[in-house]
Amino acid sequence: MEGVLDHSLRDVLTRVGGIDRCVSEFIRITDQLLPRRVYARLMPELLNGSRTPAGTPVRAQLLGSDPGCLADNAALLASLKPDGIDLNFGCPAKIVNRHRGGAVLLDEPELVHRIVAAVRRAVPAHVPVSAKMRLGHRDDSRMVDCALAIASAGASELVVHARTKLQGYKPPAYWDRIALIRQAVDLPVVANGEVWTVADAQRCMAESGCDALMLGRGLVSDPGLALALRGQSTPEWADLLPLLQHYSRLIAPRVAPRHRGGRIKQWLNMLRRRHPQAQEAYDAVRTLHGADEIDRQLAALQTEAAAA
After folding, report:
1. What is the pLDDT of residue 105?
2. pTM
3. Euclidean distance between CA atoms 105 and 211, whole angstroms
4. 47 pLDDT more than 90
5. Would you say residue 60 has pLDDT above 90?
6. CA-derived radius of gyration, the chain
7. pLDDT, tens digit, for every residue of 244-295?
8. DSSP E strands: which ranges in the chain?
9. How far lies 56's CA from each of 13, 23, 49, 250, 280, in Å?
C-alpha cells in the first residue's frame, strides 16, 4: 500500500499484535543498482534484523520489469539480511503500469517467470523469494499461466489479490478464482482482497481454499483485525488514540509539518470504517492544518476517552 503502509505504520500496527509478517512498500527498480542506504531508508527494519520494534519480521518487496536489474538488486538486498524478498506483480497504479511495473506484467507470463527465476538464482537458497499478483491485467484469462510461471521459477509462496487491475479496489473480490490458482500450483497460496471483518475472512478462506490471509486496507481500518481472527481481545478506541499520537511522533522527523497533518487525517479517515469514535476525531482535526494543533487535539481526545 504505497503512501499508506510505510515503516511508521508497520511499527504502530505490529505493536497491536496478531501479525505474522509484514511486506514493505514496493521498492521500484528501473535500470540501476540502488545503494544500501536507499534500502535502509525505505525499509529501516533492515537495521533491526528485518524486524519491526515489536519483533515482527518484514519482507522487502521489489517492483520492476528488468530480470537482470531486479536480480542484481535482490542480491545486494539479500546481503542486508531481509526476512525475504517479495516481487510485485499486483500494483494497479496507472503510472506504475505505464512504466511496465506491477499488474500490467500479468499479460506476459514468460517475463514474470524470467523475473522470478532470475531473482531466485541471485539470492542465497535460505532467503525466501515470494510474489504477489492479481487475477490479471484486463481480465483473468491468464491467471493460472502467471501463477504457474511464478511457481515453476522457484517462488516459495504466492499471494493473490482477488481482482484484476481493471477491477481495481471495487467490491466484490472474487475469492473463488483464487481456488483455481491454488489447485494448479504446488506452493502455499495466500488470499488477499476485501477482507474487512472476521466474517469476510471466514468466507474468503472458505471460497479460496486458503488457510492464510494477507490483510491490507482492512487492517489499517481496524488495527485489531488480526487479533480478532485469532479469537483474541481487540483494542478499544481509547487504546488506539495513543497509537495515533505515536504515529505522529514517528513521522515527524521526515514529514514536513504541513503534510504530517494530512497523514494523520488519512489514517483517521480509514479508522472511521470500524470505529464510530474516529468520526468525532476526524471532525475535530479536519479543518486543522498545523501538525502541533492536531497533536494537541489528539491529546485532548485521549484525555476525554480515559475519563469516560
Report:
1. 97
2. 0.94
3. 27
4. yes
5. yes
6. 20
7. 999 999 998 888 877 888 888 999 999 999 999 999 899 988 888 777 888 8
8. 22-28, 58-63, 85-89, 129-134, 157-161, 189-192, 213-214
9. 10, 10, 10, 17, 32
CA distance 34 to 18: 33
Domains, the chain, in order of start with CATH, read 20-214 (3.20.20.70), 237-307 (1.20.225.30)
Phi, psi values for residue 185, rounded to 5°: -115, 150
Question: Which among 22, 69, 91, 210 is annotated as catalytic?
Answer: 91
Respond yes or no: is residue 91 known to be catalytic: yes
Residue appearing with cell numbers 536480480 = 71
Look up residue 12 and give its three cell numbers: 504502530
| The pLDDT of residue 289 | 79
Q: DSSP of 167-214, one letter per residue?
A: TTT-S---HHHHHHHHHH-SS-EEEESS--SHHHHHHHHHHH--S-EE
Question: ∠ CA(124), CA(213), CA(8), 5° rounding?
Answer: 70
Cα–Cα distance for residue pair 83/49, rounded to 1 Å: 8
